[in-house]
Specification:
- By secondary structure, this protein is of the alpha/beta class.
- It contains 23 helices and 23 strands.
- The chain has a 6-stranded mixed β-sheet.
- Helix 7 runs antiparallel to helix 8.
- The N and C termini lie far apart (about 60 Å).
Length: about 600
């Protein structure tokens, strides 16, 4: 039987096929996996640049493109017959000699580019000061080295990016902008999916290369696993190397903090880490997030991610306020009142829950009997908005032991006034940083960063956090900002825009409308009556993502919210409030995967003066 690996493009392309074609393709693939009579067989491709590339006839007029080596078959894509043949002829595949990950080359396009580079070459080339040995030590392909020697400008390297594997382009780009060999090596090493694999690489071993490439391939052993991969969202199955390295690490001796900008996959890392700890950890897991709404969202995602019901039950999902409420309720035998006579505030309940945990366990018992704690592992999402008291409660809810706390957040997306360094609440964390945004196109990311103000923000460890180095993995559409004379015209424009998105085929569930306050949300809902598109306030968009997002009422006097009638006594409070308002708008803007529309009537928000 073949060892079948599925590439990330295949499920997406399969889902786009007409239902009868999709059904036939799935049946054919199941037969191939089981190696039964009538199963498709790999057919050689005449004129292929890689002898291992073949095609599988999966349905009438459609073929899968595969890379095979003995019994290993990697299914890359499914296309109409002519496109499949063309794709198979155009590409070649290899193994990075340093990292051992799979690499895909658009060989035909590179052949067309080479003459143009030769005509424009100026001596010496951009990489002339660097010897071949140093370039090869960065994992650069031996056969592509003559091509790289023709490069004379940084613009040449940028133009080659779509044609090269990222593990080839990344170190080249560092060197092209004047970086050192050490900096280029660190950029390459970021593409390593496991922090523990440092052994020799067999460049001829396709199977091992695919195992080292969780973003490019996942093996399926039977029909059940195949159907799950074809049905699940990308984030469930294919993790980018930095995400995989953090989420699937065998163990952490100290608490871990993962910071990253919008769209870098922090929540995905948190979900996969919780799932990993549930399957391989030493006790119950608590996944904590900002609000009950987000907790419900994460719980639904864990249901998709974890198939095994027993493993799934090991993970509880909650927010810090409800955790405190549960601890006090369990101790007192009834739910404490939050309003009315004898009511306690959430802050008071958090303090009481911490007192109860400390009395029941005591930190000295952690290493002797970690079972005294309610949880063995705690994963925290949206950490930037956890208060100091909530951090103390979370620290007390798990033992001081291996894999105790795993924390993800972004100080630039802080929407509360919670500002705390973890060390100040007894959490000595090792920080890791994610710098590549997979959700946002570069144009939208740049716009949002300028709107937010890309300066420093109080970090989750001692010191401040900046956005230096944050970039997107792809290009896309620029955000649209429109001004209207009246609110009526603005709402008419909103409805027209949403109707055009729906006409483009964007599902209503993949469209979100946001406004700063409830009054503008209600007006938007009235304007969109009958369109089945949801609208929220900006803070309620936190943690969610959509294909397209429209933000309305981004006007002066609305964004930012007007200051209180009596100014605060603390001198820096107004500045902090304005920065928090910028963060709230930044969070709302960065919920969009592909398109952002912003409108206002009258004078626009001063934040839009980019």
């Amino acid at each position: 039987m073949p060892r079948l690996a599925i590439g990330p493009e295949f499920p997406r392309e399969l889902s786009a096929l007409a239902p009868p074609v999709r059904r036939d393709a799935v049946v054919a693939l199941r037969r191939f996996l089981l190696n039964v009579a009538g199963a498709p067989h790999p057919q050689r491709v005449r004129g292929a640049r890689d002898a291992r590339v073949a095609t599988l006839r999966l349905a009438e007029g459609h073929r899968g493109v595969v890379v095979r080596q003995r019994d290993v078959v990697w299914l890359r894509t499914v296309l109409p017959d002519p496109d499949a043949w063309s794709y198979a002829q155009r590409h070649r595949f290899g193994v990075n000699p340093v990292l051992g990950v799979i690499e895909e080359w658009d060989a035909e396009a590179l052949e067309r580019v080479e003459p143009a580079l030769r005509r424009s070459v100026r001596s010496p080339g951009l990489f002339a000061p660097i010897c071949d040995g140093d370039l090869l030590a960065l994992g650069l392909d031996l056969h592509a080295l003559p091509l790289f020697r023709l490069v004379t400008t940084e613009a040449d390297v940028a133009a080659l990016e779509p044609l090269l594997p990222p593990t080839q382009h990344a170190p080249l780009a560092v060197l092209a902008r004047g970086g050192t060999l050490g900096e280029a090596w660190r950029e390459l090493d970021a593409w390593r999916a496991s922090g523990e694999e440092r052994g020799p690489v067999d460049a001829g071993d396709l199977y091992a290369a695919l195992l080292r490439s969780p973003d490019r391939a996942v093996f399926v052993a039977d029909k059940v696993e195949l159907d799950r991969v074809l049905r699940a969202p990308d984030w469930c199955t294919f993790l980018h190397p930095p995400q995989h390295r953090l989420a699937r690490a065998a163990r952490y001796e100290r608490p871990v903090l993962v910071v990253g900008g919008a769209g870098t996959g922090k929540t995905v890392v948190a979900l996969h880490r919780a799932a990993h700890l549930a399957a391989h950890g030493a006790g119950p897991v608590l996944l904590v997030t900002f609000s009950q709404g987000l907790a419900e969202e994460l719980s639904a995602k864990l249901d998709l991610l974890i198939d095994d019901e027993v493993v799934r039950k090991r993970v509880e999902v909650d927010n810090a306020d409800r955790l405190a409420l549960r601890i006090v309720t369990d101790a007192e035998g009834r739910r404490p009142a939050l309003v009315g006579q004898g009511a306690r505030s959430l802050a008071e309940l958090t303090d009481e829950a911490l007192r109860l945990l400390s009395r029941a366990t005591g930190d000295l018992l952690d290493d002797i009997d970690p079972g005294h704690k309610p949880y063995r592992h705690i994963v925290v999402d949206e950490a930037q908005d956890v208060s100091p008291a909530q951090w103390r409660l979370l620290r007390a809810a798990a033992p001081h032991a291996r894999d105790d706390l795993f924390v993800v957040g972004d100080p630039h997306q802080r929407v509360t006034d919670a500002r705390v360094a973890l060390g100040a609440v007894g959490i000595s964390a090792v920080q890791h940083t994610l710098k590549l945004s997979y959700r946002l196109p570069q144009e939208l990311l740049s716009f949002a960063v300028r709107l937010r103000g890309g300066g420093l923000a109080p970090g989750l460890v001692k010191g401040a956090t900046d956005m230096y180095g944050l970039r997107a993995a792809r290009d896309g559409a620029r955000p649209v900002v429109r001004a209207y004379a009246t609110q009526e015209e603005e709402l008419e424009g909103l409805r027209s825009m949403i109707e055009s998105w729906l006409a483009d085929g964007v599902p209503a569930a993949e469209i979100a409308v946001g406004a700063r306050d409830v009054r503008h949300v209600r007006a938007a809902r009235r304007a969109l009556s009958g369109l089945d598109v949801r609208a929220w306030t900006f803070p309620h968009l936190k943690g969610l993502e959509f294909e397209r997002v429209a933000l309305v009422g981004v006007a002066e006097g609305v964004v930012p919210e007007p200051p209180p009638a009596e100014p605060p006594e603390e001198p820096h409070a107004r500045a902090r409030a304005l920065q928090r308002e910028r963060s709230i708008l930044f969070v709302a803007c960065t919920r969009a995967r592909s398109m952002l529309y912003i409108s206002h009537s009258g004078r626009g928000s001063p934040f839009l003066s980019l």
